[in-house]
Amino acid sequence: MSHNHTTHDDRAVVLASGGMDSATAAYEAQTRGYDDLYLLHTSYGQNTEQREHECARALAGHVDAADFLHVETGHLQQIGGSSLTDDGLAVADADTDSEEIPSSYVPFRNANLLSMAVSYAEASGASAVFIGAHSEDFSGYPDCRPAFFEAFQSVVDVGTRPETEIALEAPFVEWSKTDIAERGLDLGVPYADTWSCYRSDEPACGTCDACAFRLAAFQRLGERDPIPYESRPDHT
What we know:
5-stranded parallel beta sheet, 8 helices, alpha/beta, 5 strands, Rossmann fold, 38% helix
């Protein structure tokens, strides 16, 4: 019985959260020659999981994805420790200057997600895994830092078949949200089908950290964010 472990240079897994950054990462992957995208979306009990799932599915349609994999990662909610998954912890109002790790940090989430994405990539012969993490994330989230992705690349290299070569791509790791929005608008990313709010499925609150970064990015570019908001404070 022969197993075909061919890796395809035009095939990539994209972690698709339903948000702006991962949608832009999918389009970025396509511009880099990855025509066959395999989208992985996880629900982990986050407040807006239904809306995020719909947005990730919509993205799969927009990029004509080769495959869409939806995984329930309920263990992240059971473990807890994040205001995104624990109803007893309120999602804080935006404090974009804080040095603290925000309560929305899901402990070691990206390691969990990347592990699944690498399994999926190795099983489907993909040569890259894309994640949309960026610099404003890593100021607060330890699992969004460049050093984390470099370390994880070593884990991938050591822990997969000798002939497997999977590049971990975090194209926006040094970028701001505004940089990402600008790139995405250039690439025609359908931001109307993305969701960032930590609190609400509809409309977005406009005042949590995620909404603040997102609204500020569009405001700085002089563009109107196409999704519905309860309020649109000036976050610039």
